[in-house]
Amino acid sequence: MELGMFTSGYQYYPLERAFADARRFGYDYIELWGGRPHAFAPDLARGELSGVLALIERHEMPVRVYTPEHNAYPYNYMLGSELQRADALDYLKLCLNMGKALGADHTLISTGHGGYTASRRELRSRLVRCLRELADHAESIGHTILLEALTPYETNVCTTAGELSETLEKVDSPALMGMCDVVPPWVIREPITNYLDQLGGRMAHLHLVDGDGNSDSHLIPGDGCIPLPELLEELEVRGYRGRATIELVTSYRNEPSLYAKQALQRVRALLPH
């Protein structure tokens, strides 16, 4: 299984440090966080793309997934007026363009919070409408979207494998695939392997971390309570052949290099041999 580094934890350092560490520690690829100061899509489009492409070449470290910052201020396609919805989609279409330009296989998005006044029917209708528009754009440029379910602490729109599977079916586009972050199912006591059951061949990516079962915290593998050795063995038995990004986020910004190295060593030790 190819293992990737998520660069969000390096946001207080120059982006080159993440690329250099990824190569030095033995990661297979980068999942590039699309926020300032590193790879915010509008900045890339205004001329900073060439700098990131130079890092990819210099460190021989591909960007396989581009994960733009969204779902909060100021972009959330699930909340706000029609003008705000359209603005969020224009931003995400630009993100898809930049993901393609980076050479990434996928651009990864999720669902923001839909607010407390919309009905479930209204939320589902808005979600499918937005994703169909984004998928049409992805198809037109030859790119693929990964849709991620989040925890109930983050969204009230898509939090389970079943909801994710239903959304993919309703949008019905080859440019829209699903993925699993292991924390959301662990928090709501849903079997993680339910994503394999529900998505089947549409599960194209994995976020591999640990969790405490009581929050959306993403912990270094071994620091939480998810039975990761058994999970990785089950993924192997069930035939999952996709990539896995070790998604360390803001909790580890003080020492991203040390934690990135430790996390990779721990996961490699857990992989079935």
From TrEMBL:
InterPro entries: IolE/XylAMocC-like (IPR050312), Xyl_isomerase-like_sf (IPR036237), Xyl_isomerase-like_TIM-brl (IPR013022). It comes from the Bacteria. Residues 19-268 form the Xylose isomerase-like TIM barrel domain. It holds the Pfam family AP_endonuc_2. Signal peptide: none annotated. This is Fructoselysine 3-epimerase.
